Amino acid sequence: MKKTIEEVLHRYGPMTSSALREKLIATGITEVNARQRISRAGGDVQRFTHFYLPKKEAFLYLTKDYNSRQYWNALLESHANARTVYAHTYFALRPYQGAIPAYLFSKVSGSPDKLKGQIASSRLETQLIKGSVLRKETDVVLGECLVTYINESPRV
Predict the structure, then answer these.
(1) In terms of C-beta density within 10 A (0-12 exposed, 13-18 middle, 19 or more buried), how is residue 56 classed?
(2) pTM for the whole thing?
(3) pLDDT tens for residues 89-144?
(4) What's the CA angle centered on 92, arms 72 and 55, to 5 degrees?
(5) Which terminal residue of the chain has fewer beta carbons within 10 Å of its beta carbon, N or C?
(6) CA distance 74 to 97
């Protein structure tokens, strides 16, 4: 039985477009048709657009899954499997209990400031903040800090 993208994401949770394509093919859809369905997905299917996986592979999720533990685990796992600088940076913050002074970010991330073909640490910081992985906070002692934001409920 052919399943829709929403049904697959509901059953298996957020995933990369290539994993979703494989799941759709397993239900009897051709590869070309699966790619077309993924590219035309809309409605309740969302794409994480703040930073991409290699080869501009998409990360897809249902609206109801946004900011859930399953969402963050799948996003970080897909970036870790692809060995992206985004996953490296997030996991590099763990020994610091998810918070560092902002001036240390380029050293902790391992991302250079001026090197062709690499993501600059300032751009990396901006993308992680826009993607809600990090947020800026001000500490009385340390000054401006970067704190991991993953799976916290927004403050009202």
Answers:
(1) exposed
(2) 0.82
(3) 888 888 888 889 999 988 888 877 776 677 888 889 999 999 888 999 998 888 89
(4) 60
(5) C
(6) 21
